[in-house]
């Protein structure tokens, strides 16, 4: 069974959700076909209305399934689609009754959809709860990229209209569409820059928002350079872009778009390349607009070289800064002797562990370590701790967590392990701990007491941190229970809100064939 982060979906639910988003894409593409072949005919209009109706129903259905506090982004996207649907329907009616002069008011209805889309993405960003400095950095980057795109929009889409003799007032309505697509393009850039936003839902939204502006440029190019081509056929592409919004809403990963971002995130390094491309675009646009003839090529080449040199320098500086920050984080979150996670990092991961899928929390205390340390010296004790950590690392997966929480105490978080695996997994860990350890000419051996808490299902809790501490106490108690009896393994099941410990005097778990390789 696959469970979402909120524990609300079963494997069957997720399979159904994946099927719905795929079917929505297939249906949307199928309905775009008559639009491509008959963009201004009855078949194309009816296909558009049907597709927009389906998108609206999907967005409203998704919003209805969510808690009240999480509905806003999807309701705003539904409002954007409702604006498109009402305008398309009204246009279909007025065309059939012969009142084409009513088209102009409908433009304002279409244009209102851009405002709803901006509000929807803004709502998603607020729910990410990003640190203010990070938000400011994103805003500056988006402003830079959008400004460069705006200059290109002016040169390619706006200026030719004005040079053709149209006044700004007469051209204002047609020009608002590329400006609206510019706004939506900035949303795509924003989502690309937000750290921690990934998955198919995010990709679908970014493609939907980011493709509209390039399509405007293609629309303009074909209208001017290939006049025999019926550019209205490209409306089919815009329809598919709207369908992507519904697919993003229906995909099971939509929760990542609004989930609070984990601590310690930073902006993606490749954004510097995007900023450099923006700088280069401005240089190219200025060179083309201000120069002509033989002076154009040298000026253009110089602008590009300077822009790319600056970008390369900043990229290398950012790389060095990111490497230094990563090294500092490693020092702050890991035990310097063994390299295992420290108690602080463990406490940050525990809430996600206890609210995630089933798993095992293993609490290990080395038996005889103090005597060994006093007899042979601290350097031998350090070698034993490092050897224990290495053996645990070989036994678990990269997605699991090994933490040193005391002098000779370790905690291991095993994600996704079945309760049936617990005895064999714990016994194998115990066997590893008891293997002799050689340091130079000296061979030593320690024992271990292992307490295991089994989480059999995702815990539905209001305070994950409190439950995480309770699970740790349960594992600690299980470990000390078996330590009093001479060491070994003690497995207990955890049930909300207290641990269900094995009866006093119960036998130790016998060794079984290990389930971990």
From TrEMBL:
Record's keyword annotation contains Membrane: yes
Transmembrane segments: 20-37, 108-126, 138-157, 169-194, 201-222, 234-251, 272-290, 296-315
InterPro entries with a match to the protein in the record: DGC-Regulatory_Protein (IPR052163), GGDEF_dom (IPR000160), Nucleotide_cyclase (IPR029787), Rev_trsase/Diguanyl_cyclase (IPR043128)
UniProt entry tagged with the keyword Transmembrane: yes
Span of the signal peptide: none
Domain (GGDEF) ranges: 357-496
PANTHER family named among the record's database cross-references: DIGUANYLATE CYCLASE DGCT-RELATED, GGDEF DOMAIN-CONTAINING PROTEIN
Protein name: GGDEF domain-containing protein
Species of origin: Kineosporia babensis
